[in-house]
Amino acid sequence: MKHAEFAFPGPLRDKLIAAILRGEKTSTTGLVAEYEKYGEELPSVGERELMIDSAGNGVAVLETTEVRVLPLSEVDLQHALDEGEGFTSVAEWRADHTDYWQSAEMRAAMEDPEFTVDDTTQVVATRFMIVAVSPTERIG
Fold it and tell me: What does the pLDDT look like over 15-29, one tens digit per residue?
């Protein structure tokens, strides 16, 4: 089973996993460039992935329910709200995600110290649902 890893291990990943487990986060956004860099296939509807916490433990199984590939400029308010991170506008969502995607950690992962995103950057807007949670929030 493929793994679903949100952000880098640490406080942000822990925050995102908690929001998913509470049912507050039902969407996420990735960069097409990141999938290409690592030779990974884009998510597909019906696909199930094991969500991994910061310690490398499986905590839940997620099923992809929708996948849209679109320019960053076309991400809509509902998607931003469903990310479950407290965003109240697309502008707020965009600023937060731009900071993350242009962070030193992400630039290192992309092996490009000048990596940037703009309106034309292709993103993968994914919607998902939890289909299984470990009673101890650890699976596998």
Answer: 999 999 999 999 999
pLDDT reading at 138 higher than 90: no
Helices and strands (H and E) in the chain: how many: 5, 5
pLDDT above 80: residue 140:
no
| Euclidean distance between CA atoms 44 and 81, whole angstroms | 22
The residue that leads in pLDDT, 135 or 53, is 53
DSSP letters for 39-95: TPPPP-TT-EEEEE-TTS-EEEEEEEEEEEEEEGGG--HHHHHHT-S---SHHHHHH
- Tell me which residue has tokens 């597909």: 44
The answer to whether 8 touches 1, Cβ cutoff 8 Å, is no
- Spatial contact of 81 and 24, defined as CB atoms under 8 Å apart: no
Any idea what the Cα angle at residue 110 is, between residues 127 and 55, rounded to 5°? 65
Helix/strand/coil (H, E, C) string of 96-127?
HHHHHHCCHHHHHHCCCCCCCCCCCCEEEEEE
pTM (two decimals): 0.90
